[in-house]
């Protein structure tokens, strides 16, 4: 395996021959590194088996949707692979987390159900537990870390749970939840490190392979590891040669670190807060070591692009974690070329303000929305002249203001700041050429980090 010395990019490839890293694929590796083949494939020693997943399927049937698993012709053409999308963002709580939460709740004893449950979550597990606890008349307390998107907090309250927002991190919220569990005698429903939760998440693999038995690769987001663990258990049992690829946000390489014994930095503000887990599960680590073929890390720019493309192409809203699988494929299409891929759109709970920002930033990256600064004489009619040139080029002015104070121009000059909308980068360049042909000095300023 080859590593670059640039730790800010954190790029690793599996190729024995040097090759240029892609812009957005930040890390990729075999997650079986350092594990013997016998240890890797000893599924009998794992805490969850195919029979557990099949039992979970029967247990939750009718209460959780068997969501659509559809072929995306456009995305397939873009990446040179056959892309199938599992729309878990269409569950009632807009997340796959309902599966594991319900499977655990249905196995509580009458006494445990009467006392109630407690869970800690950044949002989706919280909603899954709260919703199904209310259906089953089980009292529920949900502990959520500070900074959890408002939409997830309010949706959880809407489902009737007692919500406590505390702690700067998920781990702090977990510590509070466990202490409260002991104090109040509540059953603690772990979001990922619980055999029943893992088995519930694994029902996704049963549905995908029933629909498309000839899938070559499943690309699965990793937070604490419950989703990929359940899927890997079921998929490898049904089809041993299927490849399981896990995806983490580059800011949160927690499972990567655990498997590799490395210490890459973990933390930061990620779009994929649903998989922003600093400490993965003990049970899930064991399953990932045994059954997951590779882990890749993706950049924030890749996550943003995937969220925007899913809205633009598939007309479906996903959160950052839900777009992680597509982000990995878009970042390194050669890795998946010619294969039949199953991608999970595992959640759709994204704050609307954040979503608007992601879409606007993507427009800027594509050259469809640009901030242009033009030096003009501070004279009447100049704005009209500039507007005429831009209009003749077929571009649209979104915002406009003059900067007369904070500029190095002479006192009789001013900077005209415009935000303009164009079809693409080529149209932007043609518009700038039109301005320059009329004698205006026009410069494009700024833009999102990670623009292509």
> Biggest sheet: strands, sense, closure?
7 strands, mixed
How many domains is the backbone divided into?
A: 2
Number of helices: 18
The name of the CATH architecture of the largest domain is 3-Layer(aba) Sandwich
How far the N terminus sits from the C terminus, by CA atoms, comes to 27 Å
Class by SSE composition: alpha/beta
**So what's the CATH class of the largest domain?**
Alpha Beta
Strand content: 15-25%
Question: Biggest sheet: strands side by side, in what order?
Answer: 3-12-11-10-13-5-4
CATH topology of the largest domain: Rossmann fold
- Tally of strands: 17
Radius of gyration, rounded? Answer: 25 Å
Question: Would you kindly provide a written description of the structure presented here, covering whatever features stand out?
Answer:
The chain has 452 residues and is α/β, with parallel strands linked by helices. Helices cover 41% and strands 19% of the residues. The protein has helices spanning 37-40, 50-60, 73-79, 97-105, 110-115, 124-135, 150-158, 170-184, 195-211, 226-238, 254-260, 282-291, 300-314, 324-331, 333-336, 352-365, 382-392, 425-437; strands at residues 2-3, 12-13, 25-29, 69-71, 82-86, 117-120, 140-144, 162-165, 187-188, 217-221, 243-249, 294-298, 340-344, 369-377, 396-403, 413-421, 441-445. The relative contact order is 0.13.
